[in-house]
Amino acid sequence: MRFSPLTPLMQLKIGHRLSLCFGVILVLMAAVTALAGLSAQRAQEQLAAALSHTNGKSEIAALMRQSLFRQGQAARNVGTLTDLSAMQKEMARIGIERKRYRVNQEALLKLGVTAEERAIIGDMAAYDSRSEPFILQAEEFAAGFNAGQATKLLNTEVAPLQSQWLEAIDKLVKLEQGQIQRDLDDFAQSGHRTTLATIAICAVAMLLAVLVAWRLNRSITRPLNEAVSLASRVAAGDLTAHIATGGRDETGQLLNALGSMNQSLLQTVSEVRDGTQSIFRVSQRNAAGNTDLAARTDAQAGSLQQTAGAMAELAGIVGRNAEQIGEANRLAQSAADVASRGGEIVSSVVGTMTSIKDSSRKVVDIISVIDGIAFQTNILALNAAVEAARAGELGRGFAVVATEVRQLAMRSAAAAKEIKLLIGDSVERIDAGSRQVDDAGRTMRDIVDSVEHVVGIMDEIAAASDAQHRGIADLNQSIAGIDAVTRTNATLVAEAAVATADMQEQARKLWDAVSAFRVGSDAEAGALQLLATAPEPAPQLTRRRPSLLGVAPA
Fold first, then answer.
1. What does the pLDDT look like over 42-97, one tens digit per residue?
2. How far is it, in rounded angstroms, from Cα 414 to Cα 520?
3. Quick one: angle between helices 14-80 and 250-391, nearest 10?
4. CATH number of the domain at 11-221, out of 3.40.50.970, 1.10.1760.20, 1.10.1060.10, 1.20.120.1730?
5. Can you state the angle between helices 84-110 and 115-143, rounded to 10 degrees?
6. Please, what is the Cα angle at 328 between 324 and 333, to 5 degrees?
7. Domain limits of the chain?
8. 320 near 554, Cβ under 8 Å?
C-alpha cells in the first residue's frame, strides 16, 4: 500500500497526530477560556471596588442625612416642651447628632471625593457653620426658660438652613447613586466587549480545528479503506490472500496485524477441524458410557426401592409395638393409682383402729375408777351397818338402807369387773386387729412400690421404643435422601446423554462452519466420515413409582 504524505506533520503516527491536533485545540480553548476568565475577573474586581467605594459614600451620606433629620426633630421637640430637664435633654440630643454628623463627614472625606462631591460637601459644611450660632443661642434661651425665643429662633433661622442642608445631602445621595449606575453600565460594556472578543477567538480556533481535523481524517481514512478491503476478503473466508506489510504508523501496523491474523486464523481453522473430529469420537465413547451408567443407576434405584419398602414395613411394626407398650404403660399407671388409693385406705383404717384402741383404754380407766368408787361405797355401807347395829332400834332403818347400798355397791363392783374384762378382751382384739392392719399397710406399700417400679420399667421401655421408632424414621428419611440422589443421578445421566448427542450435533455444525474457510488443499475424508456417522441415541431410564416419599412413619 502506497500513499504520499500530505505534509511533514502527517508522517507522524496516528496517535501522535491525534494528540498534537487535540493538544492544539485544547491549547486554543484553554487560551480563550483563560482570557475570558481573566477579563471577567478583572472587570468584576473593578466593579466590586467601585461599588464598594460608591456604596460606602452613599451609606455615609444617608447617615449624615439621618443625623440632620434627628437634629430638626429635636429642635421641634424643644418648642413643644415646658419642662426644663426635657428641653435640656433635647438640646443635648441636638449636640450629639451634630457630633455624629461631623464624624460621618470626616469619614466621607477620607474615602476620597470628586470635585463635584467636594463642592456639595462644602455647601453642607457652610450650612452647618451658619446654623451653629443659632443653635447655641437657642440652647441659652432654653436654659433660661425662654422656650418661646428658642422655638422662634429654631423655626425662623435654623429650620430654613436645615431644609437647604437636606437638599444638599439628597443631591449628594443622588450623585452617588448615579455613580453606581455608571459603574454598572461600564461593567456591562466591558462584558460585551469581552464576549465579542471571545466569540471571535473561538471562531478562529474552530476554523483551525476544522482544518486540522479534515487533514487528519484524510491521512487516516485512505489507508484504512485499503485495510477494510483486505479484511473483507478474510471475512468472506478467503484465507489464502497475501497481505503486504505497511509502514511504521498505525495503519502499517494494522496491515501487519491483518497478515498475522490471517495466518493465525488459518492455523486455528485447521486445528478446529482436527479438534472437531476428536470431539465427535469422544462424544461417541461418552454416549456408550452413559448408556451403561444409566442401566446400573436404574438397577441401583430398584434395589433401593426394595430396601425402602422393607424399612417402611419395619417402621410400621415398630410403631404398633410403641402403641402396645404405651397401652401397657397406661394400664400399669392405672394399677399404681389403684394400689396407691388402697394404701391410703389402709392407712386410714390403721388410724381408726388406733383411735378405737385409745378410747378403749380410756374406758378401762373409767371402769377402774367406778370399781374403786363401788369398793369405797361398800366399805362406807359396812361402816354404816356397824354404826346402825350399835345404835340398836334407832339405827335399824339406817341399817336396812346401808345394807341396800352395800348390795348395790357390790353389784356395781361386779358389773364394773365384768365390763373391765370385756373391755380388756376388746382391747386385746383391737391390738391384734391393729397389728393385722399394720401388716396390711406394709403389704400395700410394697405393692405400690412394686407397681411404681413396673411403671418405671414400662416408661423406659416406651422411651426405648420411641427412640427406636425415631431412629427408624431417620433411617427411612436417609434412604429417601439416597433415593432422591439416585433419581437425580439418573436424571443427570439422561441429561448427560442428551448433552452428548447435542455435542455431536454441535461438532457437525462446527465442522460445517469451519468448512466455509478456504485453507488450500485440505483432505475431505474427515468431513465425509463425520457426516456418515449417526449419533448414538440417548438412553431411556425406567420410570419408577415413588417409594419413600409416600411412606409416612407410624
1. 656 655 655 555 666 777 777 777 777 777 777 667 666 667 677 778 777 877 88
2. 157
3. 60
4. 1.20.120.1730
5. 160
6. 145
7. 11-221, 295-532
8. yes
